[in-house]
């Protein structure tokens, strides 16, 4: 057979990398070599792509996954792969240079902010990923605030350095995040000519010389800078290294003393290991954040980021938790996430703070006051898990068999272990009350945000109602930001969520994963209510049930408080005289009555916000049950709230729109019709960034409208800013509309 030369194709064998590592061979190092980290960022900054590269270079995947192709390890849900976004956090464990890294890839969309919150609650460090062409964006601010709330040291990674508009957004980090960036690398080249970085600590150049688009970036060149290099680059590196040394000396006294005593004549002579140790101390003290750069999609700069994670972020034993020390070597763990598996049942993620976890053991849940048997112990790797015989302190584990445990529960080895820890806490704090003992040995849980949208949900037929209720219970256990309640008037099931996308995803999951074709009612905004004036009320309940007479009299006062001063919550207080008179049981009954009233305002039944209640007098006849006390308090609260006058509060969102200048006027005109207030218009390369506040009620279907106005050339992000009082005209319109619905 003769083949013409013109069509001859020579197929060369593709080099195959070594077999991927098995999770069974995962090292179990001492606690100082463990890193529990999260990847956090704004939407589309490159979190999942960066995670994918980390797993590949660590040897745990055979090929580089791509978000656009829907084949990444951590985005394993069908909805994630279809939409190209991360919806739920995913945990993976892998080794890097004798360290064990437990990593959680978190979502960047505001609707799934709880996933970031509960991940950061149990992590020791975080990598904040930035789109180098955009700098600090709306959701970057949100996740950064969450990390600060949990006092988590961070490393910054300026991704997408290969984009034409990429720049070194150090000032953006300094001004918008109020952080102190510590620059550790200088990029070599920019845009499509970005080829590597210079490590300022070692003055070495790391170059990725890609020979083809299929080059995976596993191999890169490391060489010391010398006189043959570009003089401009040498000058930039020299200036940047001097600035780094001076900055670290200002932040770390030990390093400053070393400089002045041993290297006062020549700061450049300071050994790189001494500078690295100082940067680590600065990072752990949260006085500064190391900044690195690269391009994950182009396979450049990820290996140095992994080195930075092990070098600068803390080990579990470098983070101090007061509660944990009372358990000593006994088991103490926090449940921070629950998944439902059709074969295994509930899978509970635990962060182990002390002790050792082993399968086939009984565990005590302090929050539920229950004991359950854990049947199996797994290492999490996205949706692929490997069974292991034990897990030590400092790690993240996945357990099978804990059917009652929910997010935020504290898990210990036994009731006796909890009692022993409580005894140590009592001795340490000289606490006298038993209730305080119990509270002191429980780890703080996960803060769950309030929902902002709700709608009705109905099964296809009444025969599916029980199945739907079971599904919703499972989903609520997985996702505490999803709330389900029953409307007392209509009997309909109400689904409450964090946004349009959140509810849409839940609806889709019910159909795909559980096979129930549900119907959603129109999406409505979850308003709040408050009071306008101070008002007092009293009420007496006198009721005979069987042979038992219940008599209670309550006097209380309500008043409005500044919403921002209490973070939007409601306050409850007792007079000093009452504090000493009421028994613990009756005080709890009064609190239950007040809190039940906080959940349903007098105007439209929305939860109350910014209301302070003072219990002035409670007279209880002997034999009166706590339930009757709660009922009387609720009735008295309703009287006081009606006398105080009601006011509807609506959620107001921070809106950020990135749009070309030619479409800016159309977007501004549309915002004016939505009762929007423009705060600022900034320039970002060839685009304009519009910052505004808009009532959430006016943002229904905004993505479709914006796409039409700008021919698809705009992006936007929303974040809950505050709750504001509706003007009288809007409030009357809302009252009439809802009355019509009822």
Automatic annotation (TrEMBL):
Subcellular location, record wording: Mitochondrion
GO molecular function, one term: GTPase activity
Keyword Protein biosynthesis: yes
Binding-site residues for GTP, renumbered to this chain: 41-48, 105-109, 159-162
UniProt-listed PROSITE patterns: G_TR_1, G_TR_2
GO cellular component, one term: mitochondrial matrix
GO BP: any one term: mitochondrial translation
Protein family per UniProt: Belongs to the TRAFAC class translation factor GTPase superfamily. Classic translation factor GTPase family. EF-G/EF-2 subfamily.
Protein task: Mitochondrial GTPase that mediates the disassembly of ribosomes from messenger RNA at the termination of mitochondrial protein biosynthesis. Acts in collaboration with MRRF. GTP hydrolysis follows the ribosome disassembly and probably occurs on the ribosome large subunit. Not involved in the GTP-dependent ribosomal translocation step during translation elongation.
Name assigned to this protein: Ribosome-releasing factor 2, mitochondrial
Gene coding for it: GFM2
